Amino acid sequence: MKNRLTIAIQKNGRLSDQSRDLIKKSGINFTAKGDKLLAKSNNLPIDILFVRSDDIPSLVSNGDADIAIVGENILIEKSLFKKTNINKVLELGFSKCRLSFAAPQNFSMKSVKNKKIATSYPNTVKKYLLDNKITANVVNIHGSVELTPYIGMADCICDLVSSGATLEANNLKELEVILESQAVLIQNKKLNKTKTLIAEKVISRMNGVINAIESKYVMLNADVKNISAICKLLPGSESPTIIPLENNQKVAIHALCQEPIFWETMEKLKSNGASSILVMPVEKIL
To answer: What pLDDT is stored for residue 3 in this prediction?
Structure first.
């Protein structure tokens, strides 16, 4: 194990599925069987650990896992008020959510003072209250946080919100966002030389996969006189490739665009003389 890199990910759930997908797209082959907590890559010196999300920051900080994918909300909650050996390496762009105060309809943010707040993120909430000089009683609860106002356990809650459907179903309104979160890649600060080299390869590959998600490869034809105007319209491209065509008054323009290509962009390209516009997905970027 000394020279094999260990990656920790959530055992079950949506973040687990997205983490496995990212690892496999990064060229790390592994097979997870049943309820086994460990899978070994068959093409790289890497082991995958399947664990509870709440345990991931401590596993990485203690060196039991070398790198990991975890929600930033959990990383912040477990790292507040104590020193860790963790570096945040990459923001991964998936599993986005927010930590928000929410309450019954007749409640306002001004009413939080001296009230009971139920949450699964007590450290994050206490930090927010401290920073904003608000005195309140934080009640730590795991699961079914949204029910606490109706059973008299709390006056309001602070919980993760994605679409807001769960709040609406429980007749709660969102009051204020205190933290924006997404999946992040974290790393232990004290890897040995061998593990550091493997980690650098994994990080580079994952970065390539993430960068490719919204990137598109654009190909089009245009008159020579329109090259400058069209190149300015290509979002996030560095230096497009200009290729002469049989008709010496026309060129083909190829560009890697590292920003989304919307219909409006394509329509602007067309109105500036572009034709045969082709937008293709990009699988990986290095």
So the answer is: 86
**Backbone φ and ψ of 240, nearest 5°:** -60, 150
Q: What's at 85, amino acid-wise?
A: N
In Å, what is the CA distance from 163 to each residue of 61, 99, 174, 214? 32, 12, 11, 22
Contact by Cβ (8 Å): 56, 72: no
Q: Mind giving me the DSSP string for 138-168?
A: EEE--S-GGGGGGTTS-SEEEEEESSSHHHH
> How many CA atoms within 13 Å lie on the side-chain side of 101?
24
Look over the chain and give the mean of its residue pLDDT values, rounded to a whole number: 92
Q: Walk across the sheet containing 116-119 and list its strands.
A: 137-140, 116-119, 156-161, 97-104, 172-181
pLDDT, tens digit, 9 for 90 and up, residues 83-131: 899 999 999 999 999 999 999 988 888 888 899 999 999 999 999 999 9
* Predicted confidence (pLDDT) per residue in 4-44, tens digit: 999 999 998 889 999 999 999 999 999 888 788 999 999 99
Give CA separation, 40 vs 30, 43, 127, 275, in Å.
Answer: 6, 9, 39, 49
Specify the residue for token string 């990212």. Answer: 22
- Give residue 1's pLDDT band: very low, low, confident or very high (50, 70, 90): low
Helical (H) or strand (E) element with 252: strand 250-257
Domains of the chain with CATH codes: 5-95+183-212 (3.40.190.10), 97-181 (3.40.190.10), 215-281 (3.30.70.120)
DSSP, collapsed to helix, strand or coil, labels residue 193 as helix
Give the separation between CA 53 and CA 61, rounded to whole angstroms: 14
- Cα dihedral 39, 43, 46, 52 sign: negative
